[in-house]
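The records we work with from here on pair a chain with its fold. Taken together, the C-alpha cells spell out the fold as the letters spell out the chain. The record below shows the convention in full.
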Amino acid sequence: QVQLVESGGGLVQPGGSLRLSCAASGSIFSRYVMGWYRQAPGKQRELVASISSRDSINYADSVKGRFTISKDNAKNTVDLQMNSLKPEDTAVYYCNARRDDPLLRHITFWGQGTQVTVSS
C-alpha cells in the first residue's frame, strides 16, 4: 500500500505561482510513474504532468511552458511548480502513483487532493 499526501494548494491571482508537493510513503520512485492530475467541477479528471521511474517527463499541452514536475528521491517527494496561473487552472489537484510496468499498470494509488483556485 502506498500513501500519498499532497500539500501546497490555495488561492492565487491570475499570473501568480503555486508549488504543490506530494509526499510518498517510502522509496517508490524506482518502480512507479508519478503524476499530477486535476479535476475541475463538471469535468473529467485529466493528466497534468507525469515523471517516470527513468525520469521521462510528460505534460498536458495546456500547461507546457508554465508547469514543471520534479521529484526528490531522497525526500520521497514529487513537486509541481505552477507559474503563470490562469483561471482555467482552477481544480482539485491529485497526486498519483502507478506501477511503471506494463503488466502492473493496474496498481495505482491516489492522494486525497488539494484545491487550487486562480481568481482575482
About this structure: The chain has a mean pLDDT of 96. The CA atoms of residues 31 and 86 lie 33 Å apart.
